[in-house]
Design brief:
4 strands; 146 residues; alpha+beta
Length: 146
């Protein structure tokens, strides 16, 4: 069940065309019994990344979430919030521990940087009119510096 937009604790901005992402979102939807998660597919026709002050490349480069107060979060923090919302915060608790936090954040950046290639979707951004081919590597390099 999707949360009404005014009631969510976190809205996840996900790539509905990504097979790995689709599985994760299906799992989250199945566990969203309290309705604390809202879902928005960034690959859906008509989706406008500018609503969030970002471009499509930035959204495709890593997962993003929007908290109820409008705060935009990204990366592993999104998963921490999502799993807490479905009652599985204990699963992601180690990702908060100082030494492991760095490891998980780095591992996620490697995954995010390679997600499109690993799922056979290298041209996903530039197959539409939403991008300029040269923009993605710059976004990814910026994310890697964090």
């Amino acid at each position: 069940m999707d949360a009404p937009l005014e009631a969510f604790a976190i809205k996840v901005l996900y790539d509905g065309d990504c097979p790995l992402c689709a599985r994760e979102i299906a799992f989250l939807r199945s566990r969203n019994s309290r309705g604390l998660i809202a879902f928005e597919d960034i690959a859906a026709p008509g989706f406008d990344a500018a609503r969030y002050g970002l471009d499509q490349h930035a959204l495709m480069s890593r997962i993003h979430g929007v908290l109820a107060d409008g705060t935009l979060i990204e990366g592993v923090e999104v998963f921490r919030r999502l799993y807490t919302a479905i009652g599985l915060g204990w699963v992601v608790a180690p990702t908060r521990w100082p030494l492991l936090r760095r490891l998980f954040d780095r591992a996620y950046r490697v995954f995010a940087r390679n997600r499109l290639r690993w799922t056979g979707r290298e041209d996903a951004l530039c197959a539409t009119d939403r991008c300029e081919p040269a923009a993605l590597p710059l976004t990814q390099r910026a994310a890697d510096r964090e």
